[in-house]
Amino acid sequence: MIDLLILSLATFRISSLLAEEIGPFRMFSRFRYWSGERHDKFGRTGTNEFARGLICFWCVSVWVATILGIAWYLWNDIIWVVMPLALSTVAIIVNKFTE
Hints:
Order of helices and strands: HHEEHHH
Shape: globular
């Protein structure tokens, strides 16, 4: 059960990074631009299906959860790799509630 919690929190963090955050040295916004995300007067748009999928947080979370689930099934020690992301999510949640 604890693995599920850790994987869920890590899924949130990775999805947030890929879909919404700029990241250090603008790495995530550059990745989205490289993949085809563009901004116009209506907001964010995608020039291809991959970019459209990156714009949607919910869509990204499905793919990230699938990848992490398969990785956990094949390599149970993945928990130790994603643990920092899960802890980061907890820190973000605590920060939001204390603001």
